[in-house]
Design a protein that fits this description.
The complex is a heterodimer of chains A (about 550) and B (about 375). Chain A has about 550 residues and is an alpha/beta fold. Chain A has 15 helices and 17 strands. Chain B has a two-stranded antiparallel sheet. The chains are: A alpha/beta (about 550), B mainly alpha (about 375).
């Protein structure tokens, strides 16, 4: 495969740098790549979740019974982290109710339910062919207002990524076209059919981010897509980088290393790294938003799995119920045992399949035990080290496993468990069938708990110590006060000859003392207010 | 739709522990077959006795520890332990010794430490060491079928007489005439190859060839080279199949070769042996490819593995040349095992996105 891809190398593309680890699982992508991207009919109902990654960032603008038009704004962002929601089709708001979200366990969140009227009437759009005519800030605002966010497999509210990039000068924009997980072929199909639009989208993102260079990183496996991109990037300032086909080549750290040859420092959230990574889907969405003026209301999603008659890629409206799409593909419900959202290696097995397509749903797999058999019994670790060879973070899973089992948090930290990206390559190769990645997830959670606990205990310790010191101080103060009072009393009783002059000086001294004490008290109060730690709720 | 219990990643590759162990067993076969050719069926008897004993002990231990022997024994680790142990024990060792050694290996060295994956020391080698310390004489004599009539003359080990003698050595109770069995044991033994001066200089292989014996003639003098080359073939196959990694075998063989070159003094009174003898006249090859590479008790990081191999190589050579034991693979491997946890702790590879220890040190010195 990579040999064939080599035939396409020329000036516009370069070979990627080597990245550590990785596996080559069977990818099952050819099933869904046989046909072109299809636009399914509009479903009767669309469910749009009001929950976004960082909690409540949205304000609903519609009420039950309202009529809405396609592309109409129905929920606005109240913080920069929120992504506004638009109506994917015309219809009526049926209800705003708690519904299941895409998750492995039962979780309900508020959804806006739109009953489609089937007319698909759109509100007026504002296409902008010459996007170069508006400023960078305006361009970012336009993208944000139309709901363009990061659409890759990883969940991160990256709609503001261009904003972040704005603060530190972005040098390089990397468009991630490595779709390394099995089954998913949405990006590959998108590039194959809409390379021109994608490339224009990349240019828009480049302008919005202010990056000097932009690169599209694509796996050598995607021959058709590479060819399509080659034609599209001709005479443009965009370079192709051919990345070795392996899992997890699409991981952000891996992509950055493959393109630049440099590792991303551990713990770096990539805020000041001057490199910006976006998904191909984001570029396409940027094209639709700016050139066509459309809001982000649909995405490419792969449907695959053995129970399906045909595996396909759909350009599907957000909020479309998953069962509706499965039915379109001729799902054999008797055969289907579970539904997976995402790829087979990192995806979530749904608690219930009655959930909508969201902005990051890149794949739906109808799973059955023919393709996903129950794993064999877990045997003892023989420390063969195969896991260490495939780890993209260059960790030692065999050691992490031992420390996870013994809950040795100190050693887990020493072995950099925190850098585990939970790709599951270690579990994939383990000859003893140990679900390593599950152990690591659990250990990470324990680490977090422990950290929280120690922070909390540290806080209370500080409070307690402060309290103790204040008690001691108060005691000492009252002691000295008592001593002073008894002393002055004794002095008073000693003075036998009472005279006007002595009385006068005594009064003046008392007045002074009171004044002084008042000032002292005020000072003390101010000081105490300053030193009192950890005020407020915990 | 029932909720699935399968967690991500839902795919696995086809590698399994039992397949790995099977591959190891298959790669041992050339060595075993050639051993039979030169020394008779004694080695097969060793393997048979050891395997049966190991499986019984393993099943009992697993049942006692509340594990399902049917599931856990599919890993075949007990069989590999038994076979490696049987290969290190001299041919013609009585069955009682073998069972005792296996009992120590499986019961104490493996399950007392928590079973497969938890043992600090290589079970097969601890079993052998247990026997070596308990029965030093039996563990250092090698039985070769000899001609009854003209004593001292070797006979074809696979002939009827040879097979009978091998059986008698392994199962002494089969000899009804007590006189005969005693005589047999005394008459049949030769010392292990390393104590043969022929092996030292000039090497036996050349000597055997010059005294117009063919490579295939069943002469114990030529036997060791051929057997070791067969083990080398198996070891290289393991490497090719990526069952083992190159670091440990290369480090051991490299160290032994370098040391034997450095200390080689032809003609001197103390014979230290040629590099050729150290590699092909002893158990170095078997130890380097099959025994020291046991991942459970070896170091698990790349640099750790190299150092682990060097430690084993040095101790192997030192014990063999300056120590009182004729061959030292078992002791050297156990000695290496002692170091493995520490090597794992101090020779971690650099994680992704982290600075190497050296650059950290340099930075620390600068500031």
């Amino acid at each position: 495969m990579s040999f064939l891809a080599g035939l396409f190398w020329d000036k516009s593309s370069t070979k990627a740098h080597k990245t550590p680890g990785g596996i080559k699982p069977a990818d099952f992508k050819d099933h869904s790549l046989r046909s072109q991207i299809m636009t399914p009919p509009v479903p009767k109902e669309l469910w749009l979740s009001l929950r976004q990654k960082d909690g409540n960032n949205l304000e609903t603008l519609v009420a039950v019974g309202d009529k809405v038009l396609k592309h109409q704004l129905i929920a606005a962002a109240t913080t920069p982290f929120g992504v506004p929601i638009h109506a994917p089709t015309s219809g009526q708001i049926k209800e705003i109710a708690a519904k299941l979200v895409v998750n492995a366990f039962e979780e309900r969140q508020l959804h806006i339910v739109i009953a489609a009227d089937g007319l698909d009437n759109s509100q007026q759009l504002h296409p902008l062919e010459m996007y170069q005519s508006i400023s960078k800030i305006q361009l970012i605002a336009k993208l944000h207002d139309l709901g363009v966010g990061e659409l890759g497999g990883a969940d991160f509210p990256k709609v503001i990524k261009p904003d972040i990039a704005n603060q530190s000068q972005t040098e390089l924009l990397i468009i991630n076209a490595c779709e390394c997980e099995p089954f998913i072929s949405a990006d590959e199909a998108l590039i194959r059919e809409k390379a021109e639009q994608v490339v224009i989208g990349v240019e828009i993102l480049q302008r919005a981010s202010g990056a000097n260079n932009s690169v599209i990183a694509i796996e050598t496996r995607m021959l058709d897509s590479i060819q399509a991109l080659k034609a599209a990037v001709e005479n443009r300032n965009i370079k192709l980088v051919l990345v070795q086909t392996k899992y997890p080549a699409g991981d952000k750290n891996q992509i950055i290393q493959a393109v630049t040859g440099k590792e991303v420092p551990s713990g770096d959230l990539q805020k000041d790294n001057s490199i910006l990574v976006h998904n191909v889907g984001t570029a396409y969405a940027a094209y639709n938003a700016v050139i066509k003026g459309q809001a982000y209301i649909s995405r490419i999603t792969t449907l695959a799995g053995k129970p399906l008659k045909t595996a396909k890629n759909f350009e599907v409206l957000l909020g479309t119920p998953v069962p509706f799409l499965l039915e379109l593909c001729g799902n054999d419900t008797l055969k289907q045992e579970s539904t997976i959202v995402g790829g087979s290696l990192m995806g979530i097995t749904l608690f219930e399949e009655n959930v909508p397509i969201t902005r990051k749903t890149n794949c739906i797999i109808a799973a059955c035990s023919d393709w996903f058999p129950e794993p064999p019994a877990e045997l003892a670790c023989i420390r063969c080290g195969d896991c260490a060879d495939v780890c993209p973070a260059k960790l030692l899973p065999q050691q992490l496993y031992a420390f996870s089992r013994s809950q040795d948090l100190e050693n887990l930290e020493d072995q950099n468990l925190i850098d585990c990206i939970e790709c599951g390559a270690c579990s994939y190769v383990c000859p003893s069938n140990i679900p390593l990645v599950q152990y690591f997830r659990a250990s990470k959670a324990t680490q977090q708990d422990h950290l929280k606990q120690s922070e909390l205990s540290g806080h209370w310790k500080e409070r307690y110590q402060f309290h103790q010191s204040r008690l001691i101080k108060d005691k000492e103060e009252s002691k000295t006060r008592k001593a002073r009072v008894t002393k002055s009393r004794a002095a008073n009783s000693e003075s036998t000859d009472f005279s006007r002059s002595t009385a006068k000086t005594d009064i003046a001294a008392a007045v002074n003392r009171v004044k002084k004490r008042k000032i002292e008290a005020a000072l003390k109060k101010a000081k105490e207010a300053k030193t009192e730690p950890g005020e407020g709720p915990i | 739709m029932k909720p699935s219990t399968i967690s991500s990643p839902r795919q696995t590759n086809s590698k399994s522990v039992s397949n790995l162990m099977k591959t190891v067993l298959i790669c041992l076969c050339p060595g075993i077959v050639s051993s039979c050719w030169f020394f008779g069926i004694g080695i097969l008897l060793n393997i048979l006795i050891a395997t049966i004993a190991a499986l019984v002990f393993e099943a009992v231990c697993l049942a006692c520890r509340g594990k399902d022997p049917k599931v856990q024994m599919t890993d075949l680790s007990a069989v590999v332990t038994a076979v490696l142990f049987a290969l290190t024990v001299p041919v013609g060792t009585p069955w009682t010794f073998i069972v005792a050694g296996i009992a120590f290996a499986i019961l104490i060295s493996k399950h007392a430490y928590g079973g497969l994956g938890q043992n600090l020391f290589n079970p097969a080698m601890t079993g052998y060491l247990f026997l070596l310390l308990s029965f030093p004489l039996a563990m250092t004599t090698w039985h070769i079928p000899l001609n009854d009539l003209t004593s001292g003359m070797p006979i074809s080990p696979l002939s009827m007489e040879g097979v009978r003698q091998s059986l008698l050595a392994s199962f002494p109770f089969m000899a009804f005439d007590s006189n005969m069995s005693k005589e047999l044991i005394d008459g049949m033994t030769v010392a292990t190859p390393l104590t043969l001066t022929e092996m030292a200089s000039p090497n036996a292989f050349a000597a055997a060839l010059s005294s117009d014996a063919s490579i295939w003639s069943r002469d114990a003098r030529t036997g060791w080279e051929i057997v070791n080359m067969a083990y080398l073939l198996g070891g290289l196959t393991l490497l090719g199949l990526k069952v083992i990694r190159w670091h440990i075998p290369l480090a051991i063989i490299g160290t032994v070769t370098l040391l034997s070159l450095a200390f080689y003094s032809p003609g001197s009174a103390t014979i230290t042996g040629t590099p050729y003898m150290h590699l092909f006249g002893s158990a170095t090859i078997l130890g380097a490819f099959f025994i020291a590479t046991d991942p459970v008790s070896a170091a698990t990081t790349t640099s750790g593995r190299l150092i682990y191999g060097v430690i084993i190589g040095i101790s192997l050579y030192s014990i063999r040349v300056w120590g009182s034991y004729p061959d030292a693979v078992a002791i050297a491997v156990i000695f290496g095992n002692f170091w493995a946890p520490m090597l794992d702790h101090f020779f971690k590879p650099r994680s992704y996105g982290h600075k190497s220890k050296l650059s950290q040190l340099i930075q620390g010195l600068k500031s």
